[in-house]
Write the structure tokens for this entry.
Amino acid sequence: MTRRLGLVLPILLIIGWEVAAIIVNNPFFLPKLETVIPVLISPFSDILGTGSLVQNALVSIERVVLGFALAAAVAIPLGIGMGRFAVLNDFFDTTIELLRPVPPLAWVPLALAWFKIGIVSIVFIIFIGAVFPILLNTVDGVRGVKNTWIEVSTTLGAKERQILTKVVLPGAAPTIWTGLRVGFGISWMCVVAAEILPGPTSGLGYLIMYAYNLGQINVIIAGIIVIGLIGLVIDQGFRAVEKRWFGWRGLER
Amino acid sequence: MTLSINDVSRTFISDNAETIDALSHISLSVNNEEFICVLGPSGCGKTTLLRIVAGLESASSGSVSVDGIPITHPSPKMAMIFQEYSLYPWRTVEENVALGLELRGMKKQDRVDAAEKYLELVGLTGFGQRRPHELSGGMRQRVAVARALAIEPSILLMDEPFGALDAQTRNRMQHELLRIWEKTKKTILFVTHSVDEAVFLADRIVVLTHSPGRIKEIVTIPSARPRERTGEEFGQIRRHLLDMIREEIDPVQ
């Protein structure tokens, strides 16, 4: 029932859009539905000489995966260290709190200065976007591991490494996963934003900006819909794993 | 097996740098297969004492030894059962019970067999594949007991293990514990603030004074088991202990 109710507004928006488009009658301002749908239903055909929707989407996904994987590879071990050892936390915390409020896009000029135009700059921006939510959630998750869980394992003979692999990691996993989910969402925003900036010649962000330059508003809207759908599908994937593997969260007794 | 606590004292430094004596000159020699209850008002340091015996905390002075070997770390000769929240919610009941064996590197099939055996001993045959949150409070403590027994310790340390249970379940668990104790011939050091529980279970009751915890008296319970809670002898011992505890809670008397 709630699902069906949730579909009412999107349908109304689409109807409103179509009505408005007919009234406005200007494809360079608000294109009609029937000019957007053909772009969406032929995702493999070339658009304006920039490659197909699918090709551009794959390029964006590849960039996100690279930056995101790098962020996870740095943030998870660091977060575990910081959550477990006060010394590490005290050492890193101030620096992280100083860097964290800087919007990822503020790093763009510096990224261009350091890494020039190209994939490295884009991956760097994505990395910056994803690393903090993953890091903070990992620290939180590790701190949230109940002390009794750790003590039980030591009384059963666990060594430091076993405490980490058998208790701390599985105990913190749900919260770390939340960090990954949030981090991936931000990565996805960052890749599109980074692709809109001068430099890249492919990707969904580039595609919609290029369409703007050619006045193809229908392609922009199609691109936005695809960007939204991919973000949604990936987020649902994260949630499905959360439900399947980390359903125990909140049921500790 | 001999467990001896030799002149153990423990002091804490409070937040405003005052020294607090938690335990003061505790000496106790526990016989093989003996059931000892440590009884005292809250804040008497009884849990601290148990944690020192377990090797989870260290004494400020004095020592604990098992078979003449000083305890500085958790020892495989002892297993501890905590009050609550000690099961790993991401593990099945069977995996919880088998954890100690897993940490020792025992093969999967052997672990499963051992877990099954101990689950049967605590009356939970067929519950191996359940998750902890699916069990009642009493059943979860049975799992904790099975997990402790699985590493085949000679001493069980129990920190108010039935404190979070309702009165009825608590009574049943006390019966069960005696049955398991008689069957497995463990030495048990059991911390409680319940006079009734101590008189029902123990061979000897160690009564601690309130802050700092000193041994006020060691009461031997001569009655045969199973003990009748409404019996005359039970009542006399109970009254004697209650008087002692009352003096500790209300020093004006």
